[in-house]
Each structure stands twice: as C-alpha cells, then as structure tokens.
Structure prediction request, 733 residues.
Amino acid sequence: MNHELITFDQEQKVFHLHNDKISYLLAIEDGGTLSHLYFGKRVKNYHGQLRYPRRDRGFSGNLPGSLDRTFSRDSILKEYSTAGEMDYHTPAAIVRHPDGANALFLTYQSYRIEDGKPDLKGLPHAWVKNKNEAQTLIIRLEDKKSQLDFDLYYTIYRDRPVVTRSVQVLNNGQETVFLEKAASMQIDFADRNFEVITLPGAHANERHVEREKIGQGIHVYSSIRGTSSHQMNPFLALVDPETTENNGDAYGFSLVYSGNHKFEVERDQFNQIHLNIGINDFNFKWQLAPKAEFQTPEVLMVYSAHGLNQMSQTFHRLIHDRIMRSKFKDQLRPIVVNNWEATYFDFDEDKLRPIVDKAKDLGIEMFVLDDGWFGHRDDDNSSLGDWYVDHKKFPKGLGHFADYVHHQGLKFGLWFEPEMISYDSDLYRQHPDYLMHVPGRKPSPSRNQYLLDLGRKEVRDNIYEQMIKILDGGKIDYIKWDMNRHLSDIYEADLPADRQGEAYHRYVLSYYDLLDRLVTRYPNILFEGCSGGGGRFDAGQAYYTPQIWASDNSDAIARLVIQYGTSLVYPQSMMTSHVSVSPNEQNGRITPFDTRGAVAMWGDLGYELDLTKLSAADSRKVAKQVSKYKKIRQITQYGKFYRLKSPMTGNQCAWMTVSPDQSEAVVTVVDIMAYAQPYCTKTKLMGLDPSKRYEDVATQEIFGGDELMNLGFYDPFANGDFQAKMYHFKAVD
Ligand code: DGJ
Prediction:
C-alpha cells in the first residue's frame, strides 16, 4: 500500500516531503522563486507561517519589472541560487552564454512526483529496492531566455530521516552554453546559530573532527586534488552550539562523489545560513550543446533530533543498505594478513610462503599480496601500467602462488594501482601519450608516478584487458585498488581546447566506469578501495568497494582520532584496520599488542606485519585476537555503533556496538596516557535493552541493561600508556 510521501498544496504552493521522522518544506514564491521553508522533525500540517517576511531591504534589489520593494531574491531563503540574478549569495550554478553573459534567472516551471528513485547514470547513488520505498519530487526551474532547464531532484525514503538531492541540467535551447558551476544542492536556514563540523586531515592523518563557529562571510571546505582527498572529506554537518553526541539537532550532508568537491557555508548579512554542495567549480567548465544534459552527483542529507550519534547511525545504515551493492556488504569480512609493512618490495614466493603458513596456523583467513608483484617493480620508481607478473619473484607464475595460498586454506588477495603509469614501464614505452600531461609541458611526478589519461576509452580498455587476463583465471578472491598520488597536469587528449574544463570530472566518471566494469564482471571478488590509505574514503567509493583501507597510519593511538572521525559518516564494516609492528613504522610510537588489536577490531581486522618474525608470546596474542574477533565480528562489523568518549577532547576513547536484537554488545575503552594520580573514570553504555540482564562474558558478572546505561562502571586504572580494555556483554534473559 503506497502512502504519499510527497504532497503539494495548490493553494499555498507548498511542497511537503515527509515520513514519520522528518519533514522538508519548500514553496513557490513571488516571481516563480523556489524558496526553502523547513527541514527537520516531522510536522503533520503546515499553515503558512513560514512565508518569508516582506521588508524593503537596502541594497537588496527586487524582481525584474516589479515595483514591489519588499521582495528580494537576495534575502529570501532559496533552494537554488544562480549567478546573474539579484542574489549576492555564493551561487549554486553559473552558466556562460554565447554572448559572454552569465545571466541566469531560474523560475518555477513544473513538477512531477515519481514512486521510487531514478538512477543517476554513470554516477554512484543511493538506490531503492522497490518503488514503494521512496518517492521523488522533481521540480523544473527554467531560464526562459536561454531555455535551460534545471531539474531539482528530491528523494525521501519512507523509513529513514533522509532526503537525497541532485540536479539535472538540460539544454532545451538552440545554442551551446558552458556550465561553470553546477552544485548538487543548496539549503538555506534562518535564525540558526549553527556551528559547522568537518573532517579535514592529511595523508596518514585523515578525518579529524573539527567544529567551528560560522562568522559572516563564505567558508569553503573543498578538494581540488582530483579525488575526495585525505585533506577534506566530502562531508559536513550543521549543528546547534548545544548539540552533543546524544542531544540536539544535527544536519549531516555527504556528497556521493570521489572527485573535486566544494562545500560552501555562508552566513549572510541577515544572519541566515546558506549552504551549497557539489563538484568544485575550480577548473570546471562543461559544454552543454542543444539537447545535452548534465547530471550532478548526489548529496545525502540526514536530519537527527538526537545529536551526532543518531546522525551517524542513519548514515551508517543508509550507506550500508542503499549505497553499497557488493554481495560482500552483508558477509563477515575476512581477517587479512597483508605483506606491505612486512616486506615492502623485498619479497619473492619463497619469502612469502612461510608468512602464509604462519597465517594459517594463527587462524587468519586471507593473504593479500600488496605492491611489487608485477613488471620489475623492486621499488616505487617503475612498472605501474605493466599488470603482468614478475617472474623473478614468482618463477612459476602468480597462479602457482595463489594455488599455494588456497591450498593452505586461505583466500588470496591482490593489489593493483590501475590509474597510474611509470615512465619506466612497457606501457609508457608503447603508449607515451597515455600519460596525462599538458601538451608541451613536463608533467609533475608524485611518488615518481603519473596519472593515466583515463578519460580516453582506449586507455581504460588497455588497463581493463590487462586486469581481466589475471582475474579471469579465477584465483583472485580480493582486490585492493590503490591510488598513490593526486591529479595534476589536467588535460584530456581527446577533448578540444574549449572543453578542457571537463577533464577533472571526466576523470572521475572514467574511474567509475572502469571500476564498475570490473565489479560487475567479478561479483565474487571482494574489492577494497584505497588511496594512500584513506584519500578516497567517501560514499561514492562505497558504491563500488564495500571496504576501504582507512589510513596509511597504522599506529593504534593515531588511529583512534582517524577512526573516530571516520565513524561520523561511514559504517565500521567499510573501514579496514590492521595491527602492525611496534614501534610503529609511521610515527615510532610504542603501544601494547592488545591495544593494537582492540583498535583494529573497531573495523575489519587484519595484520600488516611479518608474522614469521613475531615472538612466541606475540604469536599467541595474534591467535587469541583472531579467535576472539571471529566471535564478535558480526556485532562489531554490523551492529549499531555508538561513540562514547572522544579522543579529541579527553584522555580516553570509547565506543561500542550493539546487535540489532540488543542481545549482545561489544565495548572498547582506551586510556591514552597513564597518570600517577589518575582520576576515576566511568563508562556508561548505550543502546541496550534496559529490561534485560547482561553477562560480562569474561567475568560472568551480571548487570541490568538499565544499570550499565545509567550507572555505568568504573574503568580499571591504566598501568602504562595506551591501555585498552574490551568488554563483551551477552543478554541472559
Ligand atoms: C599505499 C597503501 O595505502 C599501502 O597500504 C600500500 O598498499 C602502498 N600504497 C603500496 O604502494
């Protein structure tokens, strides 16, 4: 039975998207202006009280041809601002016409409502299982003079506090124009004293939570690196100053896109907040010939009335249930040993076999062969683009080694970096033009490697053909898809001069195309994303790879901050996390083995070290961790996730996951520094059933769910820095 999720009030000219949890209201105002009214907790009816107040505002002009000085497109809350009209906010869209003008005056033309949610062609997006799950409102805004139409897409899910947004631009005119900016969405708020939360960082230091006030002016959070980047994740939240993990309003926005992005937050002269999200307009210029269309990426908008934890839980479910497609998204993720930090480039089959043997003894389930198995890659200066085995390292071929791994009862994973080319490669020697470069200029190396001109189908096909030669053998169970530099020297050789502004976005579309062809051809291969760790950790990537290597920083204490930030948006099962050696190879920190295990068990557990070099005591610890993880991973990977204590603000980090039926919970508390006179700290749990009794599996002590959540328990005093404690509770009633 299909209940309406979207209604249109003819009289008031108001659209209302609603489900049990949320309402989103927008209206057609004077001069066909599409204005924003409300996004938040569900309201049943709307009686017109949010019609934007009329007032003559100095220096905010009025509608063309109108004598009404009380209505201005510069002050009213809008759904989509454009350059060239009387609106001085940072525009959502800019179009360059053949006469050189950028005038664009969008007015309401029509609407339609569809059951379900249409796919976004060539781009990752949230999907629906059936048409009853969601409804989509499509509002057409038109620029009468140029006959450019902007279709604004709004999808509301029946059972989630989520609205998705995207825009399709159609040239129904006679002339070719250039899109210079096309945001996926805009939303405006009046009278909100919002703060902004973002996830900035660096390579090996990704996704730190930052929260700041919004002063008057435009504040930009963006990437122009060609990927979603380590430096600024494509996510932003607007929260009230009093919003905490568990209380207050939180509005989360996640862009489903892995390329250049731009989040613009503006506090205007009337203390209104204006937010645009979309592809970055830096070096962006898209030709739109008559009848051509441009599809923006999609934004996931989440509303939570109960703070950041609830916002994150909504994102986790949405990304897991309706962005990820791989069959592995619901399967227990395998425990991996990866040879990167164990051997780097210095390996051959003889050296790897003992690691496989030891992995088998310890209960590990997959061996991943990382960088260096192909071409003649003994360091990072060569061979990218030559995807055939190095017979010096594997004299009997890769298949022979894969058979060995399988024979030992492990799955076999393989590393690729398909978007790259080295000067020292057969691919470059045969096709120097495949290397992305600006004609007549020397391209800049990064890690001594270069980008492929992926926008060219011929280039993609070459890499695809090379990869399927290896994968068709059927011996590969997992692929780690890496990307170890950002884009520069942007140029697509296939495009004419006046279309080079398309190269960045075409790169991303081409990357998605190549990846999509592979994940479609090999549904039984588990794909992991990676870009020097978490440089492409975004919702778009999750559409293709259900898990991503979260960071090249494997130090457990640095990982607390990284994983805490990551958890704001992305589900635990999406985040791979490995135990590595101590002192840590990235920052030299010495941490206990148990702590490294506890922190890595936050996500998909693996080992990134030479198992053959472990002491007998540490080997026993690995075996213990592996067997423990097998018992809890259903809950830690797929349970409801709660952040309890932030490593950004205190000396502890704590988090927990609860099974859907509330019968089991896993809790981890990490004390960062140790003190001689430590304060007494308590951990209070969340998400349990207050009426159930729970047993601490380690001690067999019994507690009420209400006790664990309201009283909590004292944490043991830490003896030494970086101590972790894990608890596993099971309901006994
Ligand atoms: C960067 C990745 O994040 C590492 O795990 C490793 O695969 C190296 N690249 C290999 O070059």
In short: The radius of gyration is 27 Å.
